[in-house]
Amino acid sequence: MVKAANSRGEAPGTPPRTRILVVGGGYVGLYTALRLQRKLRAGEAEVTVVSAEPYMTYQPFLPEAAAGSISPRHVVVPLRRVLGTCRIVIGEAQRIDHAKRTATVATLATEDEGTGPLEIEYDELVLAPGSVSRTLPVPGLADYAIGFKTVEEAIGLRNHVIEQMDIASSTRDHALRDAALTFVFVGGGYAGVEALGELEDMARYAARYYHNIKPEDMKWVLVEASDHILPEVGPELGVYTVRELRRRNIDVRLETRLDSCENRIAVLSDGARFPTRTVVWTAGVKPHPVLAASDLPRTERGRLVCTAFLTVDGVEHAWAAGDAAAVPDITAEEPGRECAPNAQHAVRQAKVLADNLVASLRGEPLTEYAHKYVGSVASLGLHKGVALLYGRKLKAYPAWLMHRAYHLSRVPTFNRKMRVLAEWTLSGLFKREIVSLGSLEHPRAEFELAAGHGHKFPPPPPAPNPPKDSQG
Q: Where are its TM segments located (predicted)?
C-alpha cells in the first residue's frame, strides 16, 4: 500500500488546510467540487476528486449521441479543465475506512507500479460514486448483451447497429439476415425507451441508403417486466408511449422477462424466441460496490443512510448525495419517502451539499435539502417525445422540444451548451451521419494484420499447372 504524498505544504505556525475527498466524478462529484472551488477561500481547504474516468458523462444525451445527433465528445465534461483548482486522481475507489479517514484507490498506474493501490487520507468525505448496472443471472447475458450507461457503450451500440445492417445487406443466409436485423431491448425505463426510440429512428433513416433493406425488415423488441413503461411521466403518458412505439412497428412486451439469450437467441418468459445478435440491457441500476466496502451505514437496498442535510446519518465528516444516498424527501406528503435517484435531484443536492460542507467548516448552520419534483421529459426519437412538467402533459414535437431545452439548460459549462446547440443546428440543416466506426474499438487490428498476425483476405487459389511438353 502506498500513501499519497502530503500536499498541504503549510508554513510553520499556520493552521492546516482541511482535506476534502470527493469520491466520484458524476453529477454530484462534479457539481460539488465545482461549487466548492468557487466558495472556498484561498488556503481554506484542498479538494481531491477520485473518478474512474477523466470526465463527467451527461447521461441524458447518450441516446442522441448513439443516434448521431450529438458528437460523443460533447456529452462529456473534462474534469481537469472544469476543476482547475482541484486535485484529480483517475482511479477506482476500492475501500473506504472512515474510522481512519482513508480511502483505498486503484489508479491507472497501480498494476505497473507493483506496489499496491493508493491510500488517500482525508478530513471530510463526499461519497458520490453513483451506480452501476443491475444485472440478473440470465444465461448468456454476460456473453452477448451490452449496457447503456456510458458514452463508450452508446457509441459501441451505434456502430454495432449499423454493422448489423451491413451484415444483413451482404449475407446470403436468410437466418443470419433476420438475426442481424432483430434488436432486443430489456427495460422500459428512461434508458431503454430513449435508446430504443433514438436508434430505431436512426436505423429507419439509414435504411434508405441500403438497396436491399427496408424499415419493415427490421424487428425492434422492448421487454419490460412490469405492466407499464416510463413510470416517471405518469400512467397516461406511459400508455401513449406504448401506443406510439407500436405504431412504429416496435414490439412492446409488458409483464415479460428475458429468460435467456444463450447462443444468440433471446428467450422471453411468454414463450417467444428471437434469434438476435443485439441484446441491450437497461433493466435498472444498483449502488456502487464501494459502498459495501465501507464502514458507513447503509439501507437494505445498499444506499447510504443520509439526513436531509446530506450528511451520513450518525457519522461525522461524511457527506453523500445522488444515486448512492438515501436522502429523505421532506417535501413528500407520505412520511419516510426518499428522493428518487435521478439527475434532477443529484444536481440540486450537490449544491446544497457543497454549501453545507463549507458552512460546517466555518461553524455556520446547515440547510436541509428540499426540492419538490418538477416532472420528467423523455425523447422517443427525432421530433418525438413525452413530458410531464408541473402537472402539464406534453406529447410529440412540443415534448421533444421541451426535452432538448431542459437538458440544454442542465448540461454543465457554457462551452458544452454552445457546442451541443451548434450540433443540433447543423443536424437540422444537413443529413444524418450514418457511418459506423467500429474499428475504433480495436484500433490495432489493421496494424496487426499488416505485421503478419492475421489474414484479412483468403489466400489466392493455386496457379494451374503448366501444360506438359508433348516431347518430353
A: none
How far is residue 49's CA from residue 22's CA, in Å, rounded to a whole number?
Answer: 5
| Tens of pLDDT, residues 59-85 | 888 888 888 888 888 889 999 999 989
What average pLDDT does the segment 230-258 reach? 90
**2-133+286-361: CATH homologous superfamily?**
FAD/NAD(P)-binding domain (3.50.50.60)
Q: Please, which contacts does 246-251 make with residues 24 or more away whose CB atoms are closer than 8 Å?
A: 248/200, 248/204, 249/215, 249/216, 249/220, 250/196, 250/200, 250/220, 250/221, 250/222, 251/219, 251/220, 251/221, 251/222
Q: How many other CB atoms sit within 10 Å of the CB of residue 347?
A: 18
Confidence (pLDDT) at 189: 87
**Would you say 384 and 193 are in contact if contact means Cβ atoms under 8 Å apart?**
no
User: Is there a contact between 295 and 96 (Cβ–Cβ < 8 Å)?
Assistant: yes
Q: Could you report the per-residue pLDDT of 376-432, keeping only the tens digit for each?
A: 888 888 888 898 877 788 888 898 898 888 888 888 888 888 988 988 888 777 777
Q: Which of 195, 224, 252 is nearest to 64 (CA)?
A: 195
The answer to whether 8 and 17 have CB atoms below 8 angstroms apart is yes
3-state secondary structure of 208: helix
State which amino acid sits at residue 240.
Answer: Y
Query: 135-283: which CATH number, 3.40.50.300, 3.40.30.10, 3.50.50.100, 3.40.50.2300?
Result: 3.50.50.100
Distance CA 282, CA 459 (A): 43
Q: Half-sphere exposure of 151 toward its Cβ, with a 13 Å CA cutoff?
A: 18
Q: What is the pLDDT of residues 186-214, one digit of tens each?
A: 988 888 899 999 999 999 999 999 999 99
Lowest mean pLDDT, pick from 141-150, 172-181, 341-350, 433-442: 433-442
Mean pLDDT score of the chain:
86
The grid coordinates of residue 358 equal 463549507
CA–CA distance, 269 with 236 (Å, rounded to integer): 26
Please, are residues 347 and 321 in contact by the beta-carbon 8 Å criterion? no
Q: Are strands 145-146 and 131-133 parallel, antiparallel or unpaired?
A: unpaired
Please give the distance of CA 198 from its chain centroid, rounded to a whole number. Answer: 16
